[in-house]
Amino acid sequence: MSSIAACLLIMLAVGFLVVENDASVLPELKTDALVTKDFNLQKKDPCDSPEKLGLEDGDIPDENIQASSNARNRPPSKARLNGPSFWSPASGPGAWIEVSLLQSTEVAGVITQGKAVFFVNTFKVSYKPPSSSRLVYVTESNGSIKLFDGGDPYTASTPRTHDFDPHVNAHAVRIVITAVHVMPGLRFEVIGCPIDA
């Protein structure tokens, strides 16, 4: 065999090994990419375990709870979830109650509750984004303002959880009454996760 032919055989052999090596690396790269993609899909919402934010247990002080009006002996401070009394406005639809949270918070929803025959049929929720006094309504996926179901005379005293999808960042949350039963009555709590400063 001539020296030229020997060189050609060596070059072919080296080229074959390089191709084989590249082919074995490529599947590993693809596998790594798939693993990374799966990991990203499995990431949880930063607030996947929302907690009550302080209305029920009294951490949020009375002065942080404001309302458009209140009936006699039914001030907004009585609107705490599972409390012995309730908030009732002087009028029905259009009345609102608002809580200023202790810090900017990822709000995941609200829990509402009536008292016997005093409850709210339907309501809307608005909120103030961090560092803003502007009110923004919680919406449906199509952009329309979401209308929440407050319950009926048979379940009025049972707490109802209303989730926000997606969650919203806020420093204040307002519930706006849109329909009432006989006399409006409301107790509530806000759920979410404080945003780290």
Automatic annotation (TrEMBL):
Gene3D superfamilies: Galactose-binding domain-like. InterPro entries: FA58C (IPR000421), Galactose-bd-like_sf (IPR008979). Residues 46-83 are annotated as: Disordered. It holds the Pfam family F5_F8_type_C. The keyword Signal applies. Residues 47-193 form the F5/8 type C domain. SMART domains: FA58C. Keywords: Signal. Residues 46-55 have a biased composition (Basic and acidic residues). This is F5/8 type C domain-containing protein.
